[in-house]
Specification:
CATH class of the largest domain: Alpha Beta
Number of domains: 2
CATH topology of the largest domain: DNA primase, PRIM domain
Distance between the termini: 55 Å
CATH architecture of the largest domain: Alpha-Beta Complex
Number of strands: 14
């Protein structure tokens, strides 16, 4: 089904809305578009003024996919951010309004990967990410155990942190900070925290970069904090069976949840019922302890 949508006076041609993106579940490109349009009020502030890498699945989740950073021919109304890289300039999309999000979905974008920093200060992130990825035979509950240990450690340091499911098998912990630290400093911060966790329980967690040597543990990926690195946004759909969503949870409910509980079917009702658990990330600016920065 092809049509033209008019949003804020901008006309957006959309195509193939009935194309099945999840063959086993029957979810279509149109379902992706409806989900993102419905949750825009909570998603939009988390994308605002951040360069975004678009993860495109033009043939659905079983087809080829690719990351699109450069947008060579954007609509004239789309905000873009030119960033020098390896001798050329990459023109990133910035999804500041619902029409830009619908435009990205029309390209076959399922996942949204925003930068950790904003346009006004690209070299200083506004949050830190602790990415906990269980390696088989470790499972989601093991990632939860590690996450809760991080929570205790962060509380000892006087820092608030906010968890979300990855939408796959892991847990993401976000720590909002004042945009005064370099990416090198925030990466070092996570690495040093991870070393404390690993020292406490070396059989459960690891920071080993080689997948073959992670020995079925939960991988603590501090490298997600490098400049230009991105991770699936809060409320982003993930390209897995049942169309799971990477969604915020409270620390109290984390032990009893599983990523499969939150999908494009169930997530909108939850969001409408409890609101945006990640809202504090939009304003909270915390200071990091100096001893963990170098």
């Amino acid at each position: 089904m092809d049509t033209t949508l008019t949003i804020n006076e901008h006309r957006i041609p959309v195509k193939n809305l009935d194309k099945v993106f999840w063959p086993e579940d029957g979810f279509t490109k149109g379902d992706v578009m409806r989900y993102y349009a419905e949750i825009w009020p909570v998603l939009g502030p988390h994308l605002a003024n951040r360069p975004v890498s678009l993860v495109r699945y033009p043939e659905g989740i079983t087809g080829d996919f690719f990351y699109q950073k450069d947008v060579p021919k954007p609509p004239e109304w789309l905000t873009t951010c030119p960033i020098p890289s390896d001798g050329r300039v990459i023109r990133y999309a910035v999804l500041n309004n619902p029409e830009s999000l619908i435009w990205s979905v029309n390209l076959g974008c399922i996942e949204l990967h925003p930068w950790l920093s904003r346009l006004d200060n690209l070299h200083r992130p506004t949050y830190i990410i602790i990415d906990l990825d269980p390696m088989e035979p470790a499972v989601f509950s093991d990632a939860v155990t590690v996450a809760l240990r991080f929570r205790l450690l962060l509380k000892e340091l006087g820092l608030q942190a906010f968890p979300k499911t990855s939408g796959a098998t892991g847990v993401h912990i976000y720590i909002p900070i004042a945009p005064r630290y370099t990416f090198r400093q925030t990466g070092t911060f996570v690495k040093k925290l991870g070393e404390v966790i690993i020292q406490h329980d070396p059989q459960l967690a690891t920071n080993e970069r080689k997948v073959s040597e992670r020995d079925g543990k939960v991988y603590i990926d501090h490298l997600q904090n490098l400049e230009g690195k991105t991770i699936a946004s809060v409320y982003s759909i993930r390209p897995f069976p049942k169309a799971p969503v990477s969604i915020p949870v409270t620390w109290e409910e984390l032990p009893d949840c599983h990523p499969s509980m939150f999908t494009i079917v169930t997530a909108p009702e939850r969001i409408q019922r409890i609101g945006d658990l990640f809202k504090p990330l939009l304003t909270l600016e915390q200071t990091l302890p100096e001893e963990f920065l170098s």
